[in-house]
């Protein structure tokens, strides 16, 4: 698990290291410069010409110091400063003085437009930018983007908000971002991640006590986290050990959603899956997936008593009968319950009756329907809006987007797995089924939602390697889950 920090939080860590621990700011700046230089020396030939485009703040000081170190190693490197030099920070001023004393060339800003450099170091703004980029800064950032040079951004690409990933007017499109100490939320969220390129988190000497002085609210999983997060499967077990999932899904014209959700629940490890659907779907579902049990909607009461986990909503339609079913499940389910698909629209007027036993999975349009917040406003802060909704509805919310956010109202998981090939019909049904399968194995709703989203993305990445992005279908994602979880097999148990 890796934590993500806003620009404000990163500044607090830096301030703690300097003011409380007592590490001089120039020492941290030198460490940052050494990190930058090490990356460049590992990747770039000495024959390539380098220009550090520096602002007047400490981010600029990092760039100036890095150029000095690179020149000491035989690189052709120079500096230019953008902005009012009368307002330089003390550290930036000191680094520039040192650079001049070491014969580092300081070129006019016009040099950026000459396109005479192979590599640009972007040190114009740091993590503190919160306003639109204007004037000479806008011109310089645009010139950098048009230069054709390889661009290394320092800490965050200039013009990107470190906390939200928003583009503040214009922004540098970096090939690589070297960020310092901790990873930044804005480098993971869209559109910031598209501007950041490859992200390298460099150690610049923040003490553990300084990092621990800030409590991050956002984090993501990496593949190595999967074995730890997966539910245990004891060798001495039977189908009842791994739980019973009730899937209330499908309508007269939508049997596929029920099929995909049920099969995904089985693929996730559930012991038994029962599908509640109109009678006309019985034959097609049982012939396509003979492992399921089948019941009709008037059997919902007994089926709820049978289940260890419930999924309601995929492909239900928006009829009065479907609304009654959703309402009944929400009001009477005694076990963890996922509300997905049409179930989300049908629960609009009863979200105040939810609890921490529920997971609701809206995409942005569905979130707009439930909250009244425009899709554009939701896009600007998917994690924040998801967290707010989780607090308001007192349940786990999965805010589905290119970077899906999962929140219980306190913490917020940001998913970084997956790809655009997964933007296809039925993908959400598979995700909901995975959640149901994990809930049946007695995972807590928040943990199950996070893991399901992560696995769903991993399966998409695995299958994209096989089928490409254009040909990926929802049913492929179930095969992808099997491929991923097969790696965890250790003779009948997960260890």
Architecture per CATH nomenclature, i.e. the level-2 architecture of the largest domain: 3-Layer(aba) Sandwich
Number of helices: 19
The tally of strands reads 18
Strand content: 5-15%
- Average pLDDT rating: 96
Q: How many separate domains make up the residues?
A: 2
Secondary-structure-derived class:
alpha/beta
Major sheet: 11 strands, mixed
CA-based gyration radius: 26 Å
CATH class descriptor of the largest domain: Alpha Beta
Q: Oligomeric status of the shown chains? A: single chain
Regions with pLDDT < 50 over 5+ consecutive residues? Answer: none
Task: Summarize, please.
With 495 residues, the chain is an alpha/beta fold. Helices cover 42% and strands 15% of the residues.
Sequence-ordered SSE layout with sheet pairings:
Elements: E1 2-4, H1 7-21, H2 25-43, E2 49-54, H3 58-72, E3 76-81, H4 90-101, E4 106-107, E5 119-123, H5 135-146, E6 150-154, E7 176-180, H6 192-196, E8 198-202, H7 208-212, E9 218-220, H8 226-229, E10 244-248, H9 256-267, E11 272-276, H10 282-288, E12 293-295, H11 300-306, E13 309-312, H12 320-332, E14 337-339, H13 342-346, E15 358-360, H14 364-371, H15 375-380, H16 382-393, E16 396-399, E17 405-407, E18 412-414, H17 427-440, H18 445-467, H19 474-486
Parallel strand pairs: 2-3, 2-5, 3-4, 5-6, 6-7, 7-8, 9-18, 10-11, 10-13, 11-12, 13-14, 14-15, 15-16
Antiparallel strand pairs: 1-9, 16-17, 17-18
Helix pairs in contact: 2-3, 3-4, 9-17, 9-19, 17-18, 17-19, 18-19
């Amino acid at each position: 698990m890796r934590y993500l920090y806003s620009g404000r939080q990163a500044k607090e860590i830096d301030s703690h290291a300097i003011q409380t621990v007592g590490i001089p700011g120039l020492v941290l700046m030198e460490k940052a410069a050494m990190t930058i230089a090490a990356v460049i020396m590992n990747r770039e030939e000495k024959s390539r010409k380098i220009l550090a485009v520096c602002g007047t703040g400490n981010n600029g000081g990092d760039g100036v110091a890095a150029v000095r170190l690179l020149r000491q190693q035989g690189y052709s490197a120079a500096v230019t400063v953008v902005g009012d030099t009368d307002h330089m920070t003390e550290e930036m001023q000191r680094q520039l003085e040192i650079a001049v004393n070491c014969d580092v060339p300081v070129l006019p800003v016009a040099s950026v437009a000459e396109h005479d450099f192979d590599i640009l170091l972007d040190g114009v703004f740091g993590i503190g930018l919160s306003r639109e980029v204007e004037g000479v800064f806008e011109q310089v950032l645009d010139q950098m983007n048009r230069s054709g040079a390889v661009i290394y951004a320092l800490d965050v690409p200039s013009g990107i908000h470190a906390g939200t990933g928003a583009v503040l007017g214009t922004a540098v499109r970096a090939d690589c971002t070297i960020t310092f100490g901790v990873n930044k939320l804005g480098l993971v969220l869209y559109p910031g991640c598209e501007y950041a390129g490859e992200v390298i988190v460099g150690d610049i000497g923040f003490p553990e006590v300084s990092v621990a002085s800030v409590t991050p609210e956002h984090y993501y999983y990496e593949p190595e986290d999967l074995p730890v997060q997966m539910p245990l499967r004891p060798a001495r077990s039977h189908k009842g050990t791994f739980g019973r999932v009730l899937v209330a899904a499908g309508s007269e014209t939508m049997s596929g959603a029920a099929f995909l959700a049920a099969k995904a629940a089985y693929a996730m490890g559930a012991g038994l899956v029962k599908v509640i659907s109109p009678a006309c779907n019985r034959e097609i579902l049982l012939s396509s997936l003979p492992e399921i049990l089948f019941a009709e909607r008037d059997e919902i009461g007994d089926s709820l008593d049978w289940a260890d986990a419930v999924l309601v909503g995929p492909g239900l339609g928006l009829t009065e009968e479907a609304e009654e079913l959703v309402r009944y499940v929400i009001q009477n389910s005694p076990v963890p319950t996922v509300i997905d698909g049409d179930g989300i629209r049908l629960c609009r007027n009863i979200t105040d009756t939810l609890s921490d036993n529920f997971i609701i999975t809206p995409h942005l349009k569905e979130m707009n329907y439930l909250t009244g917040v425009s899709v554009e406003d939701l896009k600007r802060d998917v994690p924040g809006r998801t967290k707010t909704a989780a607090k308001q509805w007192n349940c786990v919310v999965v805010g589905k987007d290119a970077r899906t956010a999962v929140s219980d109202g306190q913490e917020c998981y940001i998913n970084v797995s997956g790809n655009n090939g997964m933007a296809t019909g039925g993908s959400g049904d598979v995700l909901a089924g995975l959640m149901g399968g994990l809930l049946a194995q007695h995972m807590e709703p928040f943990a199950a939602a996070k893991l399901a989203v992560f696995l769903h993305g991993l399966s998409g990445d695995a299958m994209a390697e096989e089928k490409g992005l254009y040909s990926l279908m929802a049913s492929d994602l179930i095969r992808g889950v099997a491929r991923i979880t097969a790696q965890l097999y250790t003779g009948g148990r997960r260890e």
